[in-house]
Amino acid sequence: MRARVIWAAWPFRAAALLVAIVVSAAAQDRVALEGRVIDGTGVPIPGASVFIRDIATGLETSQGSGPQGEFSLEVRPGAYRVSAAENDFQTVSEEVEVVDRPPEPVVLTLRPAILTQSIIVTGSREQELVETSVAKVEMIARSQLRDSGYESVSDILSEEPGVVTRTSRSPGSRAGTQIHGIDSRQSLILIDGFPVVGARGVKGGILNMNRQSTNRLERVEIVKGASSALYGSDAIGGVINMITREPRQRFDADVTASAASLGGVDLRADSGFVHGRWSGFFAAERHKRNPYDLTPQDIDTTGPGFRRYDYMGKLSREFSENLKVGLIANAFDNRQASVFAGRTGAQVTTTNDSAQNYGATLNAGFSAVTQLQARAYYGKYDENSEVDLRAVPGPFEGKANLNERLYRFDASLSHVLGNRQLLQGGFDWTSNEYRGYNRLVGDNNGQSIRMADAWFQDRIQAHPRLSLTVGGRATNHSAYGSQMVPRVGLMYRATDGLRVRASFGQGFRAPDLGQLYYRFLTTSGIYQIIGNPSLRPELSSTTQVGFDSNVGRLRFGVTYFRNDIRNLIQTELVGRPRTPEQLGAILTEFGIGSAFSPGLNRLTYLYRNIDNVFTTGLESRAQVRLSDNMIVTSGYTYLDARDKATGGFLSQRHKHHGNFRVWWTTKRLGGLRTNFRGTYLGKWPIVGRRATLIADSYQLWDWYVAKPIRSGFEMYGVIDNLFDWELLT
Q: Is the pTM of this model over 0.85?
């Protein structure tokens, strides 16, 4: 691999071509379709999603309601279905006939409903209804986040079919998130569409979802399978997009305090406002846990003690119907202490890590059919660790730092072309930088990677019942040159209650800076991991076919999936050099520069392209609304994940994964809400690619109950792992 920077003019040429197409589009006579979105008491709902669907062609466009719940869209004369949607509300629709003059304003009234998940925001930043989206996207609504009692996103993800997350409540490595058997390293984590920083590629390649709080979120969207065509590099296994909360009232504030086992204390406060054309939301949290030890015969702790602070703020201003600006900032500061078993006794490692993320968004409407979005983003992650040196033999630097900086700018344009196409496209520019003392080649000097991307998507309404999406992305990488990935999908509405979806997409993921340049020495001094500048990019392809239906109170869906990954990057044990000669032989064999300066007498692991793998299986989900106040849901995922060369089942994967939930709420008993939830994970190999050590299956059952005790006050309780069924034979 040659580290080189290539001037990528073609992304900007593609964007200029898209603008030219839009500017040259002929103007046509249009009529204003206006209305309001309100709740059952008549109060306006700002920020609700309004969808206008052309009944003749099936083409659907969307916009958000204004501060007073108002909306206005210019359309051609014809028949339209106007829908208003908001998560945790029942979607409502009304058909309108538009002639040569504006019709009467449409008033859409939304009423609350538990576990109603209506809206998704795809990688192209276009809002869509779940039922009409070509892409298969799972979503966790605000009511589910609130009524789980969980403080971190990792816990709530653990209850989703096809998603496996290791948390403090389950065996295995912590905070790693698999999507259809694809590891966390190959999945992209976003917040409001912006990438999240957090030492990706160094700490096992995962972003710690235990650091992401549920309190600030409106919903979580999960895209499964290769999605690089829309989301860019790193999205070869899937995408998790955390959408932050939007204010809905003139002023609202909330304070929550809770206590848990292991000395757990959680304090949260948030407030939001809507005033004229301004709106804002702000939140602050403090979380604390004591360390715990499930293996008292050993000196090390199973889970570290920690205290964490989370902060978040967002502010938006609507200057006109066609111009809106938004700002967002979020941060966390975490400190934890762990006890490890060193070669001569116990070691104590204290780690401080923190992150800050800042984003700005501009939404502008050039016309009734043309919209522009531009965004800028800056993220930083800093970690400082210190080891108690009294039990560490030999010369060893007890302090280390790790720093990441991420800069990003992107712009996208969407244009309704005729009455059957929604054309979208844009370009992205990203710069990612790492540095770290005693870990990076050149000690505390930094390494950086830059990418310039251009993408497009054409959503074609070939028939009122048939939607087709064609798209792709071209990436110019400063170290790996140019790559292109396509995406195609279709959705056929066989009936109003039956939808069939099929999609194919490819993904591209360049090795991250941790895999290329870092050397990582464990605080125990037992092993080390060395970067490999000669790594090749990972390539993937995903095929999905499935259907979902809703008949009365029953919703049911099944999806077949297959993911193929080439050049999968893994760590491989290459030896334990005890002399300089043995170490030199290893470095020469694998072409590793001496600047990495590996240590002696340590198990030495090296990043290598060693595998071509696949994961395939079936995922199903069913939901029955027994009444307006009670819902039962269940899901099951069968997974076959194997190494193509050996045929061995991949480690850390479960062949069987099931979920079951009962949610109930009532206005009686003072407004009681409760749910009972269970997750089952089958037996799984935990050692090596040809593992003979198989871990037992396990299941977790949780119970949540909440009840208002007076106006403005609520009491809730949670029991995690209700039956204490940690492991089953």
A: no
